[in-house]
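Justification of computing resources. Each target in the renewal requires a structure prediction run like the one illustrated here; the chain below, 387 residues long, is used simply to show the kind of job we budget for.
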Amino acid sequence: MNRREFLKLSATSGVAALAASPLAAAEGAASVVPDFAKGAEEMGPILTESEIRVSRNLAGEKSASYFCDDAIWFLRDITRQRPESAFDHPFLAVLRECHEKYGLKVQINLFYRTDFFYGMDEFTLAEVTDAYKSEFAANADWLKFGFHSLQEFPDYPWVNANYADVKKIFGMIKGQVVRFAGEQSFATACVPHWCPMSMDGVRALKDCGITVMECSIGPRYRYDGKPERLPYGHAFRILQNRKPEVGFYWRESRNAAISSSVCSYNHISPAQAAETALSAKYIHDRATGMNFKHMFCDAPCLNLCTMETLAEDTAKILDREYLIFANHEQYFFSDYFAYQPDYADKIRLMCRTMHENGYRFVFMEEIAQDASLSNNPDKKEQEQYGR
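Resulting structure tokens:
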């Protein structure tokens, strides 16, 4: 199954609703190594100078976060269409509706520009109108914009990134957000496009003010030059400007097309994932000063679910402390090949479910605002995480 077929299938069947479950990753550590990883050298954990911290803000409460990746099209629309209010655009309208009904807080992660994959009608954040700046600023208590990538393609843009490039593109995105939405509208949590970020890139993000970022999970392996180990030609993304921390990992998945993935510095072990998943705990890396939290598919990713699987999979984790839901902008738009007509309804369902089960929405950055070491770590835990 190729990538396009997988996206279409997941859009209609929910086949990948729990594609990257951290609990499944932890359990999978003891599973049989899949064929694509056989014969590869296991690299071991990378975040060895780390400690588990717990958020005082979130500990002991039921909290939820929601973010949407790959966004720029709605900004192009409001710039060209100039509605009376930015929230008249249907993409933003459903978010405001859910904020008013259920207290939703949202982080929308932005591309700097549209991609040639969709044609030559390029649009960049530098073109976004500032006509709605006061409106965005007035709603910054529940709506923030974050750094994601320069554009949608290539996949894994940050896996071998250098410090200067990450800092430059971060500055390009943040500078434009501040211009059209205000400083208070920029998020300090980061979900890099496709997730993997080099160690140099992590340091750049820390220096740019990022306080917590996404990480991948699972046993990791050294890439040995065999392209069949990764789908979609992703092996070539490893080789260009290859960093020593780069490898590949496997994750429990309902579809083999995404089981083998690239990883870099922002990667935690199955044991670290099991300790922090679906909770107010996260990993603090002393080597870079960065905080890491698994954000993608900790709870369901909405565009990988049907209404039915979203309800079913969410019901399984309603006893957990902190849930992070993900989504992607493209699936909202009817001219996208994997358009999902129930996109807005899934947001409503997620928000209603959280509200009815006693969860309050928070920004992801709030987890790192007031933290302490995990309560009473025993000696074995200290040795395991390098404390």
